[in-house]
Amino acid sequence: QVQLVESGGGLVQAGGSLRLICAASGRTLSTYYMGWFRQAPGKEREFVAAISWSGSNIYYTDSVKGRFIISRDNAKNTVALQMNSLKPEDTAVYYCAAARVVRTPDYWGQGAQVTVSS
User: Fold this and answer.
1) Which parts of 1-118 are beta strand (E)?
2) Nearest CA to 33 among 20, 21, 51?
3) Are the C-beta atoms of 58 and 48 separated by less than 8 Å?
4) pLDDT at 68
5) What tens digit of pLDDT does each residue of 64-96 get?
6) 29 band by pLDDT with thresholds 50, 70 and 90
7) 60-88 burial by CB neighbour count: b if 16+ within 10 A, else e?
């Protein structure tokens, strides 16, 4: 089993930045992609970003390219999402995920609220 715990959400004005951190525990994650999804009110959960164990494969959804940066620290079992130039449409609950196949999570965190005010 894998446990994922997010931190770092909050309220920020448009144009500001936030950094989400996900701490993982449990089984080794060497074969897992780590990533982030988000779910806005009334909408389906959507993929945001993912990174492979080595960091050589990184994926972003088009709407966050150039603004969000995903990174991973395998020694600390953490994955981070640096979110810059935030927009009100980025408002959502952000979920950390671990997946053997990218964009198909096997494990989820509990979610962290990110609210961007205009």
Assistant:
1) 2-7, 10-13, 18-26, 33-39, 46-51, 58-60, 68-73, 78-83, 92-99, 107-108, 112-117
2) 51
3) no
4) 98
5) 999 999 999 999 999 999 999 999 999 999 999
6) confident
7) bbeebeeebbbebeeeebbbbbebeebee
